[in-house]
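The pair is set out directly below:
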Amino acid sequence: MQILLLDFSICLSYHETNTLQSQTKGDDFLHAPPHFLDSITQFPIVSLTRYQQSAGLSGQLLACLAYGGSTASIKSPLAYGMLSMALESNRLRPSQLVVEASAGTFGAALAVACKQLGHPLLLCVSDSTAPSRIDCLKALGAQIHSVSNVHNQPQLNQTAAALAQEQGGYFVDCFNNDLNPEFHRRVTAPAILRATNSQLDHIIIGVGTGGTITGVGEYVKAWSNISIVAVEPCESQALTGGFCGAHTISGIGVGFVPENYNPYVVNRVVAVSSGDAAYCAQQILLLEGIPVCQSGGAVIEAARRILLEKPNSRVLCIFSAIEPAK
């Protein structure tokens, strides 16, 4: 398994510390980031050779393992990055209340980021959220506002926006805030192109909030002709105007088209069933020893189809989490 370590030190201009600079004493015994936060965006890129051979695929299949920080997902560096950029641009004031509509991984990532940056956090959640999840978020320091009769994310966002206005807070609004794709324009995309020398034919990304595919896609399209492929559940095809039903691929397929999603940088949308996604995630674990959640399995299934259609292509998948969002 080939491994390339992405160097994000050029991109993290918003970071409050001298990012990724080694702190040593005496005789250079240890070269390490001065703080754990300085290392959470060091995502390795690996070749999935065993899976590729098992599936009978030619070309090259790569994966960017975006497993950073306390949540073992891309949500940790994203949460810290969005808050840091909001502070940098004076959208967020020091010690100001932060408000978001999330009981999932992003909510947990925000709780940790707020603790590190000195902000109280108020999370708006549905009253159907599991008590164990509520307890977890409270343990991370978040205040919880439970909302009844909420049936979708836009409704929850409306409540969070109203609370932020009433209490003088900053509404993160991950589905609509451009700081979400901006993080990926500054960090994820430049690092991927440097690590691969832009020698890619396709980048495949699952769509949840739309931030990753938009940020990566906009940056990549400005510098190359790499094809950007979006992945959504077969059972919930909002991106292509199809039927939106229940599925089990947590983290993608939110049932509506997020404002952050830019369709003009997407060359193709691939729909993957929950069953295929689960099977591919299991295969990656068994064959490559890489833990990946079901959304990563969906991305792999999309890559498999593309490599079958276009042999000898060089394809990169972005895995955004180890555990499914809860």
In short: The first strand starts at residue 3 and ends at 5. The chain has two domains: 3-72+181-319, 75-171.
